[in-house]
Amino acid sequence: MAEVDGIKPIYADNAATTALSEYALSKMLPYFTEQYGNPSSIHTFGIAAKNAVENARRTVAQAIGARVNEIYFTSGGTEADNWALFAACRLKKKQGKHIVTTQIEHSAVYRTALELEKQGYEITFLIPDTYGLITPEQIADAVRPDTILVSVMLASNEVGTVLPIADMAAAAKRYGALFHTDAVQAVGHIPVDVRGLGVDMLSLSAHKFHGPKGAGALYASIRVPLAPMIFGGGQEKGRRSGTANVTGAVGMAAALEESVNNLERDASHLTFMRDHLIAKLLTLPGVSLTGHPTQRLPGHASFFVSGVEGEPLVRALSDLGICVSSGSACSAGSGEPSRVLVAMGYEMLRRESKERAAPVRISLSRYNTLEEMDRIVSLFPQAIEIAREKTAALFSFDDTVFDE
Ligand SMILES: Cc1ncc(COP(=O)(O)O)c(C=O)c1O
């Protein structure tokens, strides 16, 4: 990575993606170079690859308290989320066409729900409070006899808030709806146990916990016979065809095992850095915290900065050697205001608002240090100043155009 003034940039955008751990890489390498067989082949190369995939499945299952036959490998969190929603529709065809989800979901759930709406499903999008929380009571009020699925994320990618999923799943059971949780930001960071949570389906993604990109899994309880998503050679018990991503599965399992084994140690290091950063940044004028003050992911700090647009702020920070994001990586590039923050009540994010303000997300990993937090704190005021000047220039130009 290019250095800024002879200093290595700080990577603090771990909710977007994480560095592959050396341990995971070391476990993956032999399956690129020596054991490159196709798990469906019956010779020794194929058997070695198949064993690797099945060992990975066992490790992933153990890490989240599932049975080995309840884990289906996917290409990541997006595919797992899509699969969960479409599978529930197929499975519960006779029960109804009502789905309950929330305004804070990642697009992988939110846009899938919008697609299902187009196909004739009725979707209830629950509105969060200002912390990004949804309550079990909201679920209990929303479910009906024709509700087939409730899908609520375990932890928010934008504001880091951790939601009370176990109580929500219990509330959803009233009329027999299935419960899915997008646990992509939670797995590997906080304890996740599918039985304790009482969920029917759960999505996870390797690149959020120092595994490789393009690998993930859907947990589906044995009570939930998943409808196939991809047709072909019959892999993943006929439910998700395609030659297995052997290195992806091996890397995901190794990264998850490492994260879960060190969960407490890493969480206390992350929480300490996060709280230090939050305390210091909140002393700056115009900076406020978004998300829940305590019920949040250990490495997640998110703020709202007044008088700036998100892009100039993220660029100014990047020029100073600090890599963070403005909201989620997926919506950050779109120029659209964050749907999640608007739903949480941040009305000034709407385009038509005269007030300028932007979210900024600083997401840490076990590889960050306290010295880096101090560097972020010391450079933040400079970045805000640069971004405020750029924002003001942008808007005086916009006004001129508008006046004509
Ligand atoms: C909450 C959440 N769900 C789903 C996804 C999508 O995961 P993937 O990048 O593996 O497709 C992400 C990634 O940003 C996420 O944060």
Task: Sketch the topology as an H/E string, one letter per element.
Answer: EHHEHEHEHEHEHEEHHEEHEHHEH
Strand runs, count: 12
For the biggest β-sheet, the strand order reads 2-8-7-6-5-3-4
As a percent range, the share of helical residues equals 40-55%
3D shape: globular
User: Strand pairing plus helix content: what structural class?
Assistant: alpha/beta
Q: Return residue spans where pLDDT drops below 50 for at least 5 consecutive residues.
A: 329-333, 399-404
**Cofactors, ions, other ligands:** pyridoxal-5'-phosphate
Percent in strands: 5-15%
CATH superfamily of the largest domain: Type I PLP-dependent aspartate aminotransferase-like (Major domain)
Which CATH class of the largest domain is shown?
Alpha Beta
Question: Rg, please?
Answer: 22 Å
What oligomeric arrangement do these chains adopt? single chain
